[in-house]
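We treat protein structure as text, and this decision shapes the records that our systems exchange. The remainder of this section carries one protein's record, kept here as part of the documentation:
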Amino acid sequence: MKRLHVHISVDDLARSIDFYSTLFGAGPGLVKHDYAKWLVEDPRVNFTISKRDRAAGLDHLGIQVEDAAALAEISQRMSAAGATPVEQKNIACCYARSDKAWVNDPQGIAWETFLSHGEAAEPSACGEDGDCGGLPAGASPEPAGGCCATTSCGAPAGTPAEPAGACCA
């Protein structure tokens, strides 16, 4: 079996262990004074890359679900972990139509949970570069960057953009 590895540097280990344990529905299998590891069997990984008008590097992480009940469950876990999910319904983004819930983790990394309903003919309902704008405003009590009052894409107003502190317009 192969497994995707994602390593995120954090500011507050205990707070992050609480957040991710709640999000994943299980505690870490290994905890050290400066480290925690989960070997998560569910969800499987959907890994994508894109070339857009953003800085190279981590854009966001996400969990793709197979039905509306799973989307609601993960959104509830996000809330239980202390984040405020922002929901989007039937949005065209990244060549798919999806319902989504977004939050920022304690470090400000955007997490997307989504249920896709099928393909979209265009890359997104957003700008010509296909930029969907990332995490909607209000998705975390501690957003990573500044926010704009409006966006040019389908994402709600106030969507942070990369690099941190910049905004899509």
